[in-house]
Amino acid sequence: MLPRRQYGYSFLAGLLALLVAPILIWWVDEPLAELMHGQGGFLKTFFAEVMCLHDAFIDTVLMRQPLYLWLALLLLFCITRLLRQRHSTIWLVAVLTLVSSQAVRNLLAVYFNRPRPFQVFSQLGLGAYFWQPVGQFDAFPSGHATGAAALLLPWTLRFSKARPWLLGWLGLVCLGRVVLEYHWLSDVVAGASIGLLLTCGWELGTWWLRPVSPEKVELVAAGAT
Predict the structure, then answer these.
(1) Residue among 17, 54, 13 at smallest CA distance from 180
(2) What is the 3-state secondary structure (H, E, C) of 115-139?
(3) Burial class (CB in 10 A: 0-12, 13-18, 19+), 203
(4) Helix 185-205 to helix 89-112 angle, to the nearest 10 degrees?
(5) How many Å is the Cα radius of gyration of the chain?
(6) Inter-helix orientation angle 89-112/143-158, to 10°
(7) Rounded to an integer, what distance in angstroms lies between the CA atom of residue 127 and that of residue 117?
(8) Which residues of 177-202 are buried (b: 16+ CB within 10 A; e: fewer)?
(9) What's the rounded Cα separation, in Å, for the pair 218 and 223?
């Protein structure tokens, strides 16, 4: 489990990543998308399979009955909190991050109205620009990257042994959206950053709900005497 200050540092890292997004928009997005469009065919089969597996998992776990999932997570939080389990607040952070990430992503996507790479290559959009004058688009930020980050990062930051696997999963999802021409690089960077910011924000916001360990209680009692 990360100490409290590490969540603060991770929150700042998410903000820094968001500041990098404009640089990617101006200098990287279109050249990289053109490279994938012209030379990335050999990668598309692999990442298409990766995304099929990811989407099948998300549809099964999250999309069919999201309300029941959220209620189940809240119930798990209440039960584990009453039992004073060390990681009880992870269930609350998970549901808050999942719900808020969907809301934030959908609002931003409507506001920025940015086309996806394949829509630009198909001449449905005028370029990799925000606020397109014609058409309704939803590329920025990436919903897959935001959702995957919101799903995985609460567990990634808590459990070090699972961290490489979960980060690898998140990385494959982000790369897959770029390779398959569904998103520009800045879309997935922004989406993952939003997931990180929300995870760290909710972790810090719910810190006071974490059960006090018996060892800490004993130390406080010893200090009082």
Answers:
(1) 54
(2) CCHHHHHCCCCCCCCCCCCCCCCCC
(3) buried
(4) 140
(5) 20
(6) 160
(7) 8
(8) bbbbbbbbbbbbbbbbbbbbbbbbbb
(9) 8
What's the CA gap between 176 and 52, in Å, rounded? 10
Tell me which H or E stretch contains 56: helix 41-58
Q: How many residues does the chain have?
A: 225
Task: State mean pLDDT over 151-168.
Answer: 96
Domain ranges of the chain: 4-211
| Tokens (6 digits) for 174 | 């982000």
In the structure encoding, which two tokens stand for residue 130, read together? Answer: 């925000």
pTM of this structure = 0.92
Q: To which residue do tokens 């995957």 refer?
A: 148
pLDDT in tens, 48-67: 999 999 999 999 888 778 88
Per-residue tokens: 98: 């999942």
Q: Per-residue pLDDT for 173 more than 60?
A: yes
Q: How is 61-130 classified by DSSP, letter by letter?
A: IIISSHHHHHHHHHHHHHHHHHTT-TTTHHHHHHHHHHHHHHHHHHHHHHHH----HHHHHTTSSSSS-S
Q: Does 33 have pLDDT greater than 60?
A: yes
CATH of 4-211, one of 1.20.144, 3.40.50, 3.10.450, 3.90.75: 1.20.144
